[in-house]
Amino acid sequence: MVEQKTQKQELRDQLGPFLTPLSLRGIPVWLVYLAGLFGLIYILNPTAGVLELLPDNLPFVGNLDEGAAFALLWYGLVELFEGKRIRG
After folding, report:
1. Residue 13 lies in a domain
2. Between the CA atoms of 71, 39, 78 and 67, what dihedral angle is there, to the nearest 10 degrees?
3. Sequence-distant (≥ 6) Cβ neighbours of residue 45 within 8 angstroms
4. Contacts of 18 (CB under 8 A, 6+ apart)
5. How far apart are CA 26 and CA 21, in angstroms?
6. Is the Cβ–Cβ distance between 21 and 80 less than 8 Å?
7. Residue 4 lies in a domain
8. 24, 28, 43, 75: which is deepest, by most CB within 10 A?
9. pTM (2 decimals)?
10. DSSP labels for 35-71?
């Protein structure tokens, strides 16, 4: 049982930067939420023409904008759940 706890702690230590709210790094909470909302809108954009920053048919770089949008959405969700838990 102790070995599982250390493995979980090791995994949490490795994933720390992805699980730490950006507000603990000095970024205002409202800005993190706004960026997360922008990421959500960008991902849910069904037409892929209004907000498309990089065309998807460009090799290797075509999906970087979607990756960045998912990262913004991820950190918005981390702020929502983890930040609220940490701030109390």
Report:
1. no
2. -20
3. 51, 52
4. 74, 78
5. 10
6. no
7. no
8. 75
9. 0.75
10. HHHHHHHHHT-SSSSSS-SS-TTSTTTTTHHHHHHHH
Q: Which two tokens stand for residue 6?
A: 């250390």
Torsion angle of C-alpha atoms 27, 36, 84, 23, degrees rounded to 10: -10
Q: How many domains does the chain divide into?
A: 1
Q: Does residue 7 sit within a domain?
A: no
Q: Which residue has the tokens 């490795």?
A: 14
* pLDDT tens-digit readout, 16-73: 788 889 888 899 999 999 999 999 988 888 665 556 667 777 777 777 888 899 999 9
Taking residue 25's Cβ as centre, other Cβ atoms within 10 Å add up to 9
Asked whether residue 12 is domain-assigned, the answer is: no
Position 57 scores a pLDDT of 75
